[in-house]
């Protein structure tokens, strides 16, 4: 039943029920600027045959580092202590040749970013092949056949053709499948998957998770899953290990951990994860659109946005005929996957992109074709909050200067008056006033996002565009920022175009939801209706693919998704990107 | 560069951790990539550092770099020596001879009177030239000229390069195409040759004129580097944030982007200076740069090339100084590059 | 791919056009070609002025002169154009013949310097990257900085003075004291130890082995009077050929089970090559360029054949490695012949083998190999001086690129697959590290031309550099333009090669 005909006495051990991997007292330190910094300490867990163990944590928890240390894949300045035994054989501290025999052959590895994890100058077929040839004695024909078999196993369409393609010619999902095929090539007893779906769209993620589960059952290999996404954990894991700041804080079977978390950190973590369907649980479904106010903060009519072609590259139509309206003081969630055009719309609304066709009316006035001068008063009404805290603030300007720039430009405030307003804004985003003398690199990601929000609110805009404002933040930080956002919106009553790929996050804030798919509006309606009773097939698929942090519920959703896909809606084609 | 013909090739945006091609070429010194050392997944994208405290941090890092420290000291000493010893302009020097004084008969065949043991400076530590001039004074004068020219070239090419690079990198469009084409054409012309052609035109308008002209042919690589920086910086979200608030292009360029390119520009300027010294001395050596009766290190080397057999020291001294200056500036540039280069080795868990 | 090349050709053509236009205008304004004539007195003066004005078209506006010049160039390029001169110099002579004599030596110098700098630089760069922060790395870094800071004309003169003269003197009477031998051994041993690195034990072993090997080899060479009558012989070719075969196999295929067939086919090629060399030795001894080419091609064919027949299961790799071995053996054969020609050359050139002035010995009456050796002797010092800065540049750049690549995810993936270090470096890292290098090559080649001008002046070559400097001082525009034309064409061609290499290496460009 396994791939290939490798008869390995290892299987006998596997059957006997002993843990495949025993980790005891594992610790990793890094040498930074001369001193040792602890990355993880006293890590201990077992992986039983055929089990999926998830190691969960936010950034800095030490989860990735611990997993990589098992195979000795840490950089030169790392120091590993403790023990990790694979079927009785110690792996920590052994010499390279022994480790090499284990890597790939007994432990397969799947990495996070399939684009960078695959060598761009070698064909995908070659890279899988190489795995086989280096561990087994096979003729080129045999190994090629095996590779095709493997590619079929991971549901790669047209394996013969795909064999000779290069990584950049495949889509993200396909590349990840190649990585999985590579990891499984030698039929390892253990698969280590390091954030395998983090870089993928939700629908693609669901497919890859399906694949992993399927393979896991068929091939009986254990999986060590490293992730920060509780939804993924709920979908896949049998047991969970929670790490914080380099230590394990809790271990347990998945369902138990989710329902009765013991440790305070785990509880906080689970509470912070947006749970799709939880906000609207008690709300009634509002009726259809009637007696709408005529006071729109934002009116988008038949919007077309195109990126101009360059040379031989044809122009790319990112948004094709989208219309929606946002009433004053309300939040509209704009949801979509990558390539849907949601960010493009956000930027166009903030006058950062020229409008190709259609109109965008802000507080009644169309901004299409306005000159820079005429646009100035409009800019007061719209503000934008960006996604990446690392690059949304000028590293060379103090926080105060960044926040105060809009005031400086529009209201011509200086010195004292400016300082006063900046301080009030810092208060409103719950940051200390003296932060205005600091520089962005001195603040954490969450703090920087708050500064971004303060800057956006400085001119009292009618409309706020929030472009994935929390996507780059850790889950617990995200929860706080979302809460702050909600409070601010209630306090200042601004309309908001909240852009996100995460339906659960949107659910927390938005009253209306619009779903975008490849530049077109798939569906729009109230939050409750969209989440409870989606009509459009894409919306349904999107909804079905989003995982929830509850294993039991997730299992039910999985079945639902399977039914949905079987019912005939074809899953998104993994189109090869150019 | 034809391989980066933007119009006709699909846009290739390098990932954050690819060394910026042009920066590497101008710096010649490569990246001591600590990020490569840690190898922890995709490194955090290079975030340029903040201003005020940065100067202290950068200075601290710079002075930790041993070679850069040494280079700075050596360069300072040489500059001090060159300008104070024989004086400059109206300011007199402490050295007894001027480079214009002759001695009709050569003392001791013009041999250097410098000795290590017992340590003595002697009358003519570097010896005497064929016409009896004190060689030390001559060398110092040559040093002055070469240093002045090098700095002027550095400044001119930095200014021109920065302006053109900034404009083409920020505004893109036609200006950028023109710049790229122009750079492609400039690549096909050997620098020394075109410098020789141009330098001939100024004739006797002095070293400042020569410096300016040379600066006008050496800006292309700096422009490319600045353009590269502007291209990447203008995509950053803080620029978008400023634009969305209505900041003018002028404000964005000067207040937002340019301050973040200071590191790159400084390093490139430093290396432009070192390249300038080598260029000018080579030009003078070929008799196209500084011409007699004016003095340059390159000119001295050309004049005394034949004397190698008999009086090699005449050939050594100017050359050693050129090497020392160039080496020091290169080390300083390397130190600056290290100091500005953000080393974010945050171990990702 | 073909589209790519064609597009490059078209773009290159226009760039050449723009380049020559720019230089033409700058040269035209750089001075007055009539200047020296205007200072004359006497009846001849006006006639001369008129003559020169006419031949250089000085009565026409500059852009017309450019077009006329272009027309002449066009005539040179097209087979139907009739006789062409590339303009005339100020004395009325045609430029083209002057160019033809000058171009050979300069191109030789420039190409050899570039190739050497590239190969040595890349290899050193890779080794220092793999041995980052080792003593060797620091040492190479310092040497690189030094090379950047050396003025070409200064180092050339120094080389001329010290290396040439002293080495020549030594070659006249090659002996070495015991002390000298020991010192040599120690130095070489130390170098190898630094390069290979490792723990204490390994360093000492490497040091001892290398030192002893060097001393014994040197001793044998001295005793057999190698430095007066050098040659390998077929035995030498066979031995070194096999060593090369083993080396290439070890590098590209590894020496364990999978690599065995590659090793066998490579070694077979080496031996076959030696045998062929033996059989053809009279033909080779008479030799000329055609013979060399045929022998090389033949050896490559032998390699391919050996790989095909013996190289299962990794045929393609075996064929490539064996072909590489074939090329190496051909190189050995050439070197052997050149060495054999040494004594004759020594005699004919009066006992000073390493040359410092000029590019070829005039009136040399010796056979083909000796003539080639002669050119080589003239080439040594100028090439060395010229390639130093480029070598340093390539080293640093390759190092940076290699380090960056080694830190990439896909290298980590390769390790995670259980591949050994050699495979990771050679198969995964190396090719990716080379990709950015293509861009560098373009910039560097132009710099080498600049350096060549200076080097030729110092070493007294009558090449393009001399043509350029003399004509420019004389304010003689057409020969100067000839220089710019040739250099621009060479650079453009080289860039195209680099672009093609770039596209070949990076499938993302090839198959966008």
Largest sheet of chain A: 6 strands, mixed
* DSSP strand count of chain B: 0
What's the pLDDT, averaged over the residues of chain B?
75
- What's the overall geometry of chain B? elongated
Helix content range of chain B:
55-70%
Most extensive protein-chain contact, per-chain counts: B-C, 71 and 80 residues
What's the total helix number of chain B? 14
Percent helix range of chain A = 25-40%
Quaternary form = heterotrimer
The structure class of chain B reads mainly alpha
State Rg of chain A.
Answer: 26 Å
Strand content of chain A: 15-25%
Secondary structural class of chain A: alpha/beta
Q: In total, how many beta strands of chain A? A: 20
Please give a structural write-up.
The complex is a heterotrimer of chains A (578), B (349) and C (512). By secondary structure, chain A is α/β, with parallel strands linked by helices. Chain A contains 22 helices and 20 strands. In chain A, 38% of the residues lie in helices and 23% in strands. In chain A, strands 6-7-8-3-9-10 form a six-stranded mixed beta sheet, with helices on both faces. In chain A, strands 16-17-18-13-19-20 form a six-stranded mixed beta sheet, sandwiched between helices. In chain A, strand 19 and strand 20 (520-526) form a beta hairpin. Chain B is an all-alpha fold and 349 residues long. In chain B, 61% of the residues lie in helices and 0% in strands. Chain B has 14 helices and no strands. Chain B has helices at residues 21-27, 34-38, 52-64, 66-85, 135-171, 173-187, 191-202, 206-217, 220-233, 237-245, 249-257, 262-285, 297-303, 313-340. Chain C has 512 residues and is mostly helical. Chain C has helices at 2-28, 35-38, 44-55, 62-77, 95-130, 135-149, 152-172, 178-196, 200-223, 233-252, 260-279, 281-286, 289-310, 315-348, 368-406, 409-416, 421-434, 437-459, 464-473, 477-505, 507-510. In chain C, helix 1 runs antiparallel to helix 20, helix 8 runs antiparallel to helix 9 and helix 18 (437-459) packs antiparallel against helix 20 (477-505). The chains are: A alpha/beta (578), B mainly alpha (349), C mainly alpha (512).
């Amino acid at each position: 039943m396994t791939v290939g005909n490798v008869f390995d006495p290892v299987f006998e051990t596997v059957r006997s029920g002993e843990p495949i991997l025993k980790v005891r007292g594992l610790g990793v330190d890094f040498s930074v600027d001369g001193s040792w910094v602890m990355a993880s300490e006293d890590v201990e867990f077992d992986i039983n045959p055929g089990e999926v163990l998830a190691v969960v944590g936010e950034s800095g928890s030490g989860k990735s580092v611990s997993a990589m240390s098992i195979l000795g894949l840490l950089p030169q300045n790392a120091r590993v202590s403790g023990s990790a035994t694979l079927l009785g054989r110690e792996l920590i501290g052994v010499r390279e040749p022994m480790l090499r025999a284990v890597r790939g052959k007994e432990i397969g590895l799947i990495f996070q970013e399939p684009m960078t994890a695959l060598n761009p100058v070698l064909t995908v077929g070659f890279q899988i092949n190489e795995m086989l040839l280096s561990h087994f004695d096979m003729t080129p024909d045999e190994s090629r056949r095996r590779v095709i078999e493997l590619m079929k196993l991971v549901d790669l369409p047209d394996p013969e053709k795909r064999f000779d393609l290069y990584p950049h010619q495949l889509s993200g999902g396909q590349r990840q499948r190649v990585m999985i095929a590579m990891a499984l090539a030698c039929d390892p007893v253990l698969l280590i998957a390091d954030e395998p779906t983090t870089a993928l769209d939700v629908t693609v993620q669901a497919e890859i998770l399906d694949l992993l589960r399927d393979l896991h059952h068929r091939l009986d290999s254990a999986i060590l899953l490293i992730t920060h996404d509780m939804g993924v954990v709920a979908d896949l894991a049998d047991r969970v290990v929670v790490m914080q700041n380099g230590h394990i804080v809790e271990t347990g079977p998945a369902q138990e951990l989710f329902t009765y978390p013991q440790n305070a950190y785990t509880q906080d973590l689970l509470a912070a994860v947006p749970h799709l369907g939880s906000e609207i649980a008690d709300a009634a479904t509002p009726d259809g659109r009637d007696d709408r106010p005529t006071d729109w903060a934002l009116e988008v009519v038949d919007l077309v946005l195109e990126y101009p072609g360059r040379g031989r590259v044809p122009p790319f139509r990112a948004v094709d005929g989208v219309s929606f309206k946002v009433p004053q003081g309300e939040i509209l969630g704009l949801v979509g996957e990558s390539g849907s055009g949601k960010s493009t719309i956000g930027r166009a609304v903030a006058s950062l992109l020229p409008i190709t066709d259609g109109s965008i009316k802000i507080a009644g006035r169309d901004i299409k074709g306005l000159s820079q001068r005429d646009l100035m008063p409009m800019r007061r009404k719209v503000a934008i909050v960006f996604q990446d805290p690392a690059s949304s603030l000028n590293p060379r300007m103090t926080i105060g200067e960044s926040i105060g720039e809009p005031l400086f430009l529009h209201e011509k405030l200086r010195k004292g008056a400016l300082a006063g307003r900046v301080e009030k804004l810092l208060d409103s985003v719950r940051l200390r006033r003296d932060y205005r003398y600091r520089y962005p690199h001195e603040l954490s990601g969450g703090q920087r996002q708050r500064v971004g929000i303060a800057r956006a609110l400085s001119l009292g805009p009618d409309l706020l565009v929030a472009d994935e404002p929390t996507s780059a933040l850790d889950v617990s930080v995200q929860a706080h920022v979302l809460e702050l956002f909600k409070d601010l919106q209630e306090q200042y009553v601004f309309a908001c175009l909240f852009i996100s790929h995460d339906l659960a996050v949107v659910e927390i804030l938005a009253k209306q939801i619009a779903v975008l798919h490849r530049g077109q509006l798939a569906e729009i309606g109230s939050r409750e209706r969209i989440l409870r009773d989606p009509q459009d097939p894409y919306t349904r698929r999107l909804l079905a693919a989003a995982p929830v942090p509850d294993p039991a519920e997730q299992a039910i959703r999985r079945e639902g998704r399977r039914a949905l896909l079987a019912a005939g809606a074809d899953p998104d084609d993994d189109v090869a990107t150019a | 560069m034809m391989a980066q013909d933007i119009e006709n090739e699909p846009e290739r945006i390098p990932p954050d951790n690819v060394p910026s091609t042009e920066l590497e070429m101008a710096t010649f010194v490569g990246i001591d990539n600590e990020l490569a050392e840690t190898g922890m997944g995709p490194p955090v994208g290079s975030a340029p550092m903040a201003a005020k405290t940065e100067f202290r941090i950068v200075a601290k890092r710079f002075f930790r770099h041993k070679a850069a420290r040494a280079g700075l000291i050596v360069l300072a000493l040489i500059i001090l020596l060159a300008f104070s010893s024989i004086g400059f302009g109206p300011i007199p020097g402490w050295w007894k001879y001027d480079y214009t004084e002759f001695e009709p008969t050569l003392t001791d065949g013009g041999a250097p009177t410098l000795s290590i043991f017992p340590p003595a400076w002697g009358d003519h530590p570097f010896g005497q030239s064929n016409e009896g001039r004190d060689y030390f004074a001559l060398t110092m004068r040559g040093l002055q000229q070469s240093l002045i020219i090098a700095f002027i070239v550095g400044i001119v090419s930095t200014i021109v390069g920065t302006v053109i690079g900034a404009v083409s990198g920020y505004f893109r469009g036609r200006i950028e195409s023109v710049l790229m084409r122009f750079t492609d054409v400039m690549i096909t012309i050997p620098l020394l040759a075109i410098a020789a052609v141009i330098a001939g035109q100024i004739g006797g308008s002095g070293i400042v004129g020569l410096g300016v002209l040379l600066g006008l042919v050496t800006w292309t690589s700096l422009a490319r580097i600045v353009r590269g920086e502007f291209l990447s910086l203008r995509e950053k979200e803080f620029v978008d944030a400023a634009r969305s608030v209505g900041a003018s292009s002028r404000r964005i360029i000067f207040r937002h982007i340019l301050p973040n390119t200071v590191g790159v520009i400084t390093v490139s300027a430093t290396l432009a200076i070192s390249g300038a010294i080598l260029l000018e001395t080579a030009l003078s050596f070929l008799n196209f740069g500084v011409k007699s009766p004016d003095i340059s290190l390159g000119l001295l080397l050309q004049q005394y090339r034949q004397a190698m057999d008999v009086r090699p020291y005449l050939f050594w001294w100017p050359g050693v100084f050129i090497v020392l200056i160039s080496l020091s500036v290169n080390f300083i540039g390397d130190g600056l590059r290290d100091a500005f280069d953000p080393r974010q080795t945050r171990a990702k868990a | 791919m073909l589209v790519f090349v064609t597009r490059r050709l078209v773009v290159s053509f226009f760039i050449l056009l723009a380049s020559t236009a720019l230089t033409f205008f700058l040269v035209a304004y750089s001075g007055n070609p009539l200047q020296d004539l205007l200072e004359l007195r006497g009846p001849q003066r006006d006639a001369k002025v008129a003559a020169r004005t006419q031949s250089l078209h000085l009565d026409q506006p500059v852009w017309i002169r450019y077009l006329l010049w272009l027309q002449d160039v066009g005539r040179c390029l097209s087979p139907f154009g009739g006789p062409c001169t590339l303009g005339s110099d100020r004395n009325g002579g045609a430029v083209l013949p002057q160019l033809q004599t000058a171009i050979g030596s300069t191109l030789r110098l420039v190409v050899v310097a570039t190739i050497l700098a590239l190969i040595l630089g890349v290899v050193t760069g890779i080794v220092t990257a793999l041995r980052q922060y080792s003593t060797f790395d620091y040492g190479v870094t310092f040497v690189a900085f030094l090379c950047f800071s050396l003025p070409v004309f200064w180092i050339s003169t120094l080389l001329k003075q010290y290396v040439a003269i002293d080495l020549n003197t030594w070659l006249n009477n090659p002996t070495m004291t015991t002390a000298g031998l020991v010192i040599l051994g120690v130095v070489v041993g130390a170098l190898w130890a630094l390069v290979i690195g490792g723990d204490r034990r390994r360093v000492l072993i490497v040091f001892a082995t290398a030192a002893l090997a060097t001393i014994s080899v040197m001793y044998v060479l001295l005793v057999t009077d190698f430095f007066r009558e050098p040659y390998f012989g077929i035995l030498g070719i066979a031995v070194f050929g096999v060593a090369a075969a083993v080396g290439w196999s070890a590098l590209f295929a590894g020496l364990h089970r999978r690599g065995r067939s590659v090793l066998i086919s490579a070694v077979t090629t080496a031996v076959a090559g030696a045998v062929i060399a033996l059989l053809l030795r009279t033909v080779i001894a008479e030799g000329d360029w055609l013979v060399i080419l045929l022998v090389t091609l033949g050896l490559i064919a032998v390699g391919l054949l050996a790989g095909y027949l013996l190289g299962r299961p990794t045929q393609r790799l075996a064929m490539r490695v064996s072909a590489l071995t074939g090329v190496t053996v051909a190189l050995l054969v050439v070197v052997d012949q050149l060495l054999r020609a040494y004594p004759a050359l020594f005699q004919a050139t009066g006992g000073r083998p390493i040359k410092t002035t000029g590019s070829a010995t005039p009136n040399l009456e010796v056979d083909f190999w000796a003539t080639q050796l002669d050119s080589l002797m003239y080439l040594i010092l100028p090439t060395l001086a010229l390639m130093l800065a480029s070598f340093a540049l390539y080293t640093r750049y390759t190092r940076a690129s290699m380090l960056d690549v080694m830190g990439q995810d896909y290298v980590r993936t390769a390790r995670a697959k259980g591949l050994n270090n050699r495979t990771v470096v050679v198969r995964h890292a190396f090719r990716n590290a080379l990709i950015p290098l293509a861009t560098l090559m373009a910039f560097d080649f132009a710099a080498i031309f600049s350096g060549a001008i200076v080097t030729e002046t110092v070493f007294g070559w009558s090449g393009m550099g001399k043509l350029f400097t003399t004509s420019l001082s004389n304010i003689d525009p057409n020969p100067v333009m000839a220089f710019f034309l040739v250099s621009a064409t060479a650079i453009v061609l080289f860039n195209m090669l680099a672009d093609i290499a770039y596209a070949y290496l990076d499938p993302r460009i090839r198959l966008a």
